[in-house]
């Protein structure tokens, strides 16, 4: 008989501090980019918003795949890649003078923190993966 899955098995990613920080980053960047020039709507604004949103979405996608270490880690690496892309777009935003030095530093530091947290999970995936069930 198949074991019934609980909501926390699917939505437990919301309890991860790294996911919560990624969500805050995405929402903050959404607000921050509202003041970008209109001619950047389909350029820098869109790219920065997409990359920050993708960090959290990759963490969410990784969570139900915890049974499969390689797949789990692969999605975490995707989240890290999106964080690297976010740093690039933050640097571009600062270079174009759309964000000031204080905001640039703050959001880069938050992104680096998220990257370090993801790296810790990648280095110790078994801490986040369910224990195999003994079948008798």
Based on DSSP secondary structure assignment, what is the total number of beta strands? 0
CATH top level class name: Mainly Alpha
Average pLDDT confidence is 91
Oligomer: single chain
CATH superfamily: 23S rRNA-intervening sequence
**CATH-defined architecture:** Up-down Bundle
Distance between the terminal alpha carbons, to the nearest Å?
13 Å
- The number of distinct structural domains comes to 1
- Beta-strand percent range: under 5%
**Radius of gyration, in angstroms, nearest whole number:** 17 Å
- The geometry reads as elongated
Order of helices and strands: HHHHH
Structural class estimated from helices and strands = mainly alpha
List the total number of helices: 5
Biggest sheet, in brief?
A: none
Helix content: 55-70%
Low-confidence spans: pLDDT under 50, at least 5 residues?
A: none
CATH fold naming: de novo design (two linked rop proteins)
Distinctive features:
mainly alpha, elongated, de novo design (two linked rop proteins), single chain, 136 residues
Describe this structure as you would to a colleague.
With 136 residues, the protein is mostly helical. The protein has a single domain, classed as 23S rRNA-intervening sequence (de novo design (two linked rop proteins)). The protein is 67% helix and 0% strand. It contains 5 helices and no strands. Helix 2 (17-33) runs antiparallel to helix 3 and helix 3 (44-62) packs antiparallel against helix 4 (69-95). The two termini are 13 Å apart.
Q: How would you sum up this structure in a few lines?
A:
With 136 residues, the chain is an all-alpha fold. It has helices spanning 7-11, 17-33, 44-62, 69-95, 101-123.
């Amino acid at each position: 008989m198949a074991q019934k899955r609980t909501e926390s098995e699917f939505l437990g990613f919301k309890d991860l501090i790294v996911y919560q920080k990624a969500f805050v980053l995405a929402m903050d960047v959404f607000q921050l980019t509202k003041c970008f020039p209109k001619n950047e709507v389909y350029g820098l604004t869109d790219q920065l918003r997409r990359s920050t949103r993708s960090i959290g979405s990759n963490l969410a996608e990784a969570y139900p795949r915890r049974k499969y270490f390689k797949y789990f880690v692969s999605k975490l690496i995707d989240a890290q890649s999106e964080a690297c892309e976010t740093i690039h777009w933050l640097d571009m935003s600062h270079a174009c003078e759309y964000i000031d030095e204080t905001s640039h530093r703050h959001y880069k530091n938050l992104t680096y923190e998220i990257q370090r947290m993801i790296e810790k999970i990648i280095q110790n995936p078994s801490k986040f993966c369910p224990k195999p069930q003994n079948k008798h």
